[in-house]
From TrEMBL:
GO molecular function term, any single one: ligase activity
NCBIfam families xref list: PRK12767.1-5
Keyword Nucleotide-binding: yes
Native species: Eisenbergiella massiliensis
Organism placement in taxonomy: Bacteria, Bacillati, Bacillota, Clostridia, Lachnospirales
Identification of the protein by name: ATP-grasp domain-containing protein
ATP-grasp domain location: 115-293
Keywords, in A-Z order: ATP-binding, Ligase, Nucleotide-binding
Gene3D superfamilies the UniProt entry points to: 3.40.50.20, ATP-grasp fold, A domain, ATP-grasp fold, B domain
Keyword hit for ATP-binding: yes
Amino acid sequence: MINILILSAGTRNKVVQYFRKELEGKGRVYATDCSELAPAIYEADEAILVPRITEPGYLEKILDICREKEITGVFSLIDPELTMLAEHREEFLAVGTTPIISPAEAVAISFDKYRMFEKLTELGIPTGRCFMDLQEFERAVEKGEIAYPVFVKPAKGSASININKVTCREEVELLCRHNEDMMIQEYMDGTEYGADVYVDMLTGKVTSIFVKEKVKMRAGETDKSVSVKDAKLFGLIKKFVESVGFCGIIDIDIFKVDGTYYISEVNPRFGGGYPHAYACGVNVPAQIIRNLEGAANEENIGDYEENICMMKYNEIMIRKL
């Protein structure tokens, strides 16, 4: 039996549905959330209400669920929980559960945008210039190394919260003065892409990559997109991911400016646009299950059709509380 625990399922109904489909006849899917109004938990074989992740004893509660339900693999769909899974990996393994997450260091780099900039620069991979020091940024402007507009954002933020596109020095100074840990980032005026990548948990090698051009965004997530393929980009992603040491599913934001691809940010979890990849045949749940069964996946990068569009739309769930 392969039992999967999906933490903080929220509104990610599709991900829960995919795992139920792939596990049919050989395991169960459990989904948690702190709210009974999280529709995705009702797509699982069993919904489990848990405290907020900030509550004392939360980790122990999740470990208890893993023991009781004999969970084989666990992952979360929200950023604040990923660090917990990575840092407490050994505790989960001790109860027989594999955290489906990258190593703690790779997760930490992902959640610190300036550290990610430094790592990409170290690897020689194109990325937008970033500054944590206002004076250093102003010197770069004076030298013509960077120009307005720029993005000002929290170095450790997520979900596109508090991101500002600014056009003058006064705005930059105001935002940096009134907010802590703000980073100034080069504005990438180009085409935006997203990549859903799976890194085999047994071999550490990239086994699948799905790339989509983002046509429309909403609240930091891909709302409409179209599938694309580019061997050059596949190679760049593979080099980057394997060099940093990511593991499992990761979601990458990329920009293409004047023919050059720039890696921007990484989310070490399922991205909101993953349903596009699954619909095109890039089956990450099946790869995860295969790894949990003790088998490695074969490399199958770019095995999907181009010009397939994804268009999200609203749906509702009706239940008696």
